[in-house]
Every structure is written in structure tokens, then in C-alpha cells.
Amino acid sequence: MTATLVLPHELHGDGPHKVIAVHGWLADRSAYAPVLPDLDLASFQYAVVDLRGYGEARDASGAYTTAEGAADVLALADRLGWERFSLIGHSMGGSVVQRVLAAAPERVRRLVGVSPVPASGLPLPPEQWELFAGAAGTPDNRRVILDTTTGGRRPAGWLDRMVRRSVERSDAKAFRAWLDSWAGEDFHDRIEGSPVPALAVVGALDPALSAELQRATWMRWFPNAELVELPSCGHYAMDETPLDLIRVVEDFLRADAENTEDTEDAGAKP
């Protein structure tokens, strides 16, 4: 594995509950832009990161694996001085945050997967594998993936914009290498049985990372798991239903028992 990297990131809020958010395969950290204006920034502080090969880390060398991504996330938490934190991961980022849990379970307060890739990977039939593998060099493949995973209901302008962002803010070689890791690696034995509270949020219009798949994986592996299906949403909840996503995720994070301690500590006088 290559040396850890301090991931490019932006901080939002100054709340006592620290949260690290990791993007998915088809976007950099700007994937979270639609939700940023309406987050509870008094209760939480969010670090939104770019993984290697994306955004400001587009030219960063690496193995482009979920394990390396997890090591990078932990290095960032160390740099920020965050001993305990919650994690949010979208799609591929859901696999990365589960890797963080596997590597440092004592540091994770709560785990959120937004249409998360299971820790068992996502085996694809040959024709789908060809579509996904070819997406590195063929923008039209990315468009088909975006359209299919949002139920074929999103406007052409949005699909075109998402493809442009994906191509402009990712390195093609890194993009292709990430696929082998998140789709092909199975590490679920390292997180199975973890007592961490774990929320999976899925969209009813997403045929790939569906509620059915999460019931067979996430809900079986995490004893303290919750599953929420957003009815008018596909794979990209941050774009499709941002306010619903914020409410579901922040209600879940706010239920953490340590939040009471955080509030008391913040209000304590020297």
C-alpha cells in the first residue's frame, strides 16, 4: 500500500459531533454540495473529502482501493484531532467507511451508508461488468449507469451535468482501478457482528443497491442496523431528495448517546 495521504477536504460547521463524509464512484466531494446549505452545523462538524483520483486529489498516486481509502480517512481524522467520529459513505464510499470500521472500530460512533456497496462487494453479470469497466473511457457508459440507477426518471440535463462532473473530476485510470476494489473485494467477515449503530438509506428507484440487497447484507451483518427507503429517489439521494436525506441521516446521528455528553461538555464552564 502507498503512503497515506492527507485527503483534500472541506469542513462545515463547528458542532461537537464530528462526521466524515466520503463520496461515491461517479463523483468527487462535490456530490455532497446539494445538502450542505441545510445541515445542522451547530450540532455537527462535517469533513467532506476527496478520495485519491478525484477532485483535488485527482492526480494523487495510489492503489485506489477501499482499504487504502480507509487508511487515508483515518489519517485525516488524526490530522484533525478527531478521536471519535461518525461516518457517511455514498455508494463506493459506503464500502470505504465500512473498511474504516474494520480498521478502527473503537473510533466509530455511528455508520451511515447512502446506497452503500456491501462489504461483500457487488458481483456484476458479464454484460454489466463490461458497462461499468468501460465507463472509465466512455462517458456514455457513465450516463447509462446514472440513468438506470435513478429509474430512468431524471432529466437529460441533469444526466449530462453529472457525466461532465464525473469525467472532469476523476482520473480515468484511478476510476477504473477503484471498480476492481469496491465491486470485487469481500471483507464482510471483518465487520460482521459489529455493534456500531448502522443506518442504510436507499432509494426505491435504484435497482442495483436496493432495500432487498441491504436486507441480505447490511441488515444481517450489523445487529444495530436500521434501513430507510426513500420512495421517490434512486441512487443519488443528495441530488434527488436532499432534504429527506438530511432529516433521516441527522436524526440518526443525533440519537447517539455521546451527544448528551457533547452538549454537556460544550456548555461546561472552566
Structural write-up:
The structure is a single chain. This protein is α/β, with parallel strands linked by helices and 270 residues long. The protein has one domain (9-265): Alpha/Beta hydrolase fold, catalytic domain (Rossmann fold). It contains eleven helices and seven strands. The chain has helices spanning 66-80, 92-103, 126-134, 139-148, 156-168, 172-184, 211-216, 218-221, 237-240, 242-254, 258-267, and strands spanning 9-12, 17-22, 44-49, 85-90, 108-114, 198-203, 225-230. The chain has a seven-stranded mixed beta sheet with strand order 1-3-2-4-5-6-7, with helices on both faces. Helix 1 packs across helix 2 and helix 4 packs across helix 5 (156-168). The protein is globular and about 50 Å long. The chain starts with 8 loop residues before the first strand and ends with a helix. The model has no long low-confidence stretch (mean pLDDT 96).
Keywords:
about 270 residues, alpha/beta, Rossmann fold, 7-stranded mixed sheet, 7 strands, about 15% strand, globular
